[in-house]
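Re-run with default settings, no changes from the original entry. Doing this only to confirm the output is reproducible before filing.
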Amino acid sequence: MKLSDLLAGQDHHVLRGDPRRTEITAGATFDADRVTPGSVFAAVPGHLTGGPEALAPAVARGAVAVLVDDQAPPLPAATGHVCAVRVPDVRKAAAVVAARYFGEPGRAMELIAVTGTNGKTSVSYMVESVLRIAEGVRVGVIGTAGSRIGDEPVPMPPSVLTTPESPDLQYLLGHMRDRATGSVVLEATSMGLLTHRLDRTFIDVGVFTNLTQDHLDDHGTMENYRDAKLRLFQGLCRRAVINADDPVGAGIRALMPDAVTTYALDADADYRASDLVVDASGTRFTLHHDGRKYPAAIPSPGRFSVSNALATLAACHLLGHGLAGLVDALERMPQIPGRFERLQAPNGASVIVDYAHSPDSLDKVLTTIRGFARGRVITVFGCGGDRDTTKRVEMGAIAGAHSDLCVLTSDNPRHEDPEAILDQIAPGIEAAGTPFERYTDRRRAIAAALGTAGPDDIVLIAGKGSEPHQIVGDTLLPFSDMATVRELIVG
């Protein structure tokens, strides 16, 4: 495609070359080391593997056009033979370019985007499961655990981004469209929304789950964090499904007054649950919608699981899928990897692996476990490095309040000293008077917890869920909590 067609209607100024004669044959990228001949290099300021300082290497690898912003320094001499275009915001322009290059694939499928502090991955898996079980729909999933169509992973370079950068996201959507995918559900993170990764995705339904403290290292204040989430409902989706139990939901209703559907456990809503019965195997409840009642169940314990189920049912029903079939499929869905994922040890102890990595999510998971625990609750957890430090002592206090024993360990330490992170968590546990141990080696910590657990005890391993790696420095080291548990209890 001609660069002029990809930029049509966008505010831009040609610095060099002719976009009408520049043929783009390899899409766009922010990463200089992923440039291939025929691509557009979008020089995003501050990008770790790109930016204006990477213009020369990108051109040397075959970029035929470059996008820079108003603050970019003069173009290096090595870029003299390529088309150069200045745009007000490189990320916004790149999202449009990438979408058009792949033929705006979001238009060809049902798209559901899920945002909120907690529940994004769970709702995504639930949507995929109920549509597949109820109607045999081929569903694409894009999120924390990577990208897949059904059980088929979509190969992509390793990344820690839940919401991929716009060139990668548009590629994934195009790949899914070309493989006859009927629906796509994706996780919309606050940073993904703030940096225009979801622009031009043509989302049919945006889902809001909740807002609790997290990611203040990125946003500074809860107000900024909230406003980033709300971007999904400011022109990026046609309809909204919102949690009426969360006060932020009222703000979304004001943004989209004629296109909001609500769900709730406590508040009045379009989709509501009552009569919850929780045990270790799951939760039974009554669904209320449009004057009718539906007996329902989900193979995951807890109020938060029912809230996620309501979001799933509302979003899928809103797209025209039959509610009775969706409710039936909900009960038959498999466990969600890394989300209250359960395993029984040979000695009778139970192991639960969960992604809970914020104060609110850890409190909800532990409160649920306490509701059916017959023995001790042993909690293995840590906090991520280079992330909000203000939540560490609070998470220690929550774990201490709900556990009989805590085992502190590394999560993703990144560039921080793991021992220093544990030092910041420990006072919260100490204030609760709960005994604890500490091992920066996560495998050793899990082994210690399993070693002390007896019949009827529950070991919660929190923080990483289904993540297949641990981030140490800039390195992704292979590590899976559930795989580690299986190795330890078998061997």
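The radius of gyration is 24 Å. Residues 29 and 126 are 32 Å apart (CA to CA).
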